[in-house]
Structures are given as C-alpha cells and as structure tokens.
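Consider this pair:
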Amino acid sequence: QVQLAESGGGLVQPGGSLRLSCAASGSIFNIDYWGWYRQAPGQQRELVAAFTSGTSTNYADFAEGRFILSRDNAANTVYLQMNSLKPEDTAVYYCKLTMRRLDYWGKGTLVTVSS
C-alpha cells in the first residue's frame, strides 16, 4: 500500500511563491510516473507537472517558466516550487504516483492566490 501526503498549500498574494511537497510512504519502488495535478472549482482536474520516466518532465503550458518540479529520491518526496502565482492558479493541488500500473492519489492541498 502506498500513501501520499501533500503539504505546503495556503493563502498567498498574487506574485508570491509556494512550495508544495508530496511525501510517499509504503512500499515504494519502480515509480513510473510522479507529479502534480490541480482542480479548480467547477473545473476538471488537469496536469500541472510530472516526472514521466526517470528524470524526464512534462509541464503544462501555464506552468512552464513559473513552476519547478523536483524530487528527493532518498526522502521519497516530490516538490513543486510555484512562483509568480496568479489568482487563476487557485485550486486544490493533488499528487499522483503511478507504480506497477497502479495510480495513487493524495488527498490534495488547497492553494489560494488572492490579495
């Protein structure tokens, strides 16, 4: 069993920054995919950024140049550094991990960008 715990969300002013963390616990090995999605009120869940295989990354267009994905393999943690945040970045951010063709999701962390 794999558990994902997100943290780092909160209220930030436009132009500010936040760093989200996703810590994985349980039997972790041969990770195929690990990244972040978000879901705004009334919207579908969408990809933000993810490690697709090894160190390859995939960023959504809105994340390119503002968000940075990184990972600490020893700590089984992936991070999302979000800079130059905009009100439209307000959403619940979810961590997703795929291992052995199984998808695991965290419960999400709320990011609110507002003045």
User: Anything to note?
Assistant: The chain has a mean pLDDT of 96. The radius of gyration is 13 Å. The CA atoms of residues 13 and 115 lie 5 Å apart. DSSP finds no helices and eleven strands in the chain.
